[in-house]
Amino acid sequence: MTAAAATAAYEYEYFKVTFPAEYVALVVIDRPEKLNAFLEVMWLNLRQIFRQLSHDPDVRCVVLTGAGDRAFTAGLDVQAAAADGAITGAGRGDVARAAAKIRRHILEFQDCITAIEKCEKPVITVLHGISYGLALDISLASDIRLCTSGTRFSIKEVDIGLAADIGTLSRLPHSGLPLSWVKDICLTAREFNGQEAIAVGLVSGCFESKEVAVEKAVGMARVIGRKSPVAVQGTKEVINYSRGRTVEEGLNYVAVWNAAMLQTKDVKDAMLAGLQKRKPTFEKL
């Protein structure tokens, strides 16, 4: 498939999907005039994009960022959400029925972000500029997080009268970060920058500009894309499974997983390439 044909297969409103290198997809949130703030259709399209990428044999790694220089995303478009009652549940009937509808609504939006985590391919998120609320939900569902020194992080939900419910409060406590710091940023909604993010370990790289950060991310994705997709996808699966489980459970799971996956010809191809001092190539998965 040509790059143009591949791009055409991913035509979604408010997103641009391109393929800057072999086996690498670049997903760009594309509503820069509104700081890439999310409307409901954007949540749904994000889920569809990552479900499609997950099964695309021509993709082995995904880079996600936002259009423009001002923001990765300012989070939920609060004005639009308030207008349609998505936040308050206005006009939904009595309390029990309104609660049931709001719960379903929240669960669906959670699922849209979890699609990033469930994507079989590693996802590298590059944050820059304003990265509020939903930006943290998205990046914490990703596998690798990079940012710029000028990134302005904030978990803003307490400032609009609610507890963050799309993933940040559930994933941050499992991220290995100090719980005092986690509660600090969640309870105060204060801004913090890229230097603080890398100092505590929220991101694994902090760069001087968005352009450099995206370049680094694509380079990393290119490296991952040259490796066995069987090995890469298995590694992501086992790491994600093992989080929050005992070592014994993780060891048993990887034993069962590799009982099948070690039979791949990729192992033989990789070992032979190493002996012959050449770069291996692997079939699509």
Summarize the structure.
This protein is an alpha/beta fold and 285 residues long.
Major pleated sheet: 6 strands, mixed
- Stretches where pLDDT is under 50 for at least 5 consecutive residues are none
The counted number of beta strands is 9
Give me the CATH superfamily of the largest domain. Answer: 2-enoyl-CoA Hydratase, Chain A, domain 1
Helical/strand content category: alpha/beta
What is the CATH-assigned architecture of the largest domain?
Alpha-Beta Complex
What percent of residues adopt helix (DSSP H or I)? 40-55%
Number of helices: 12
Q: Could you please say which CATH topology of the largest domain applies here?
A: 2-enoyl-CoA Hydratase, Chain A, domain 1
How widely separated are the two ends?
15 Å
The helix/strand order is HEEHEEHHEEHEEHHHEHHHH
Order of neighbouring strands in the sheet with most strands: 1-2-3-5-7-9
Mean pLDDT across the residues is 93
Rough outline? globular
Strand coverage percent: 5-15%
- The CATH C-level name of the largest domain is Alpha Beta
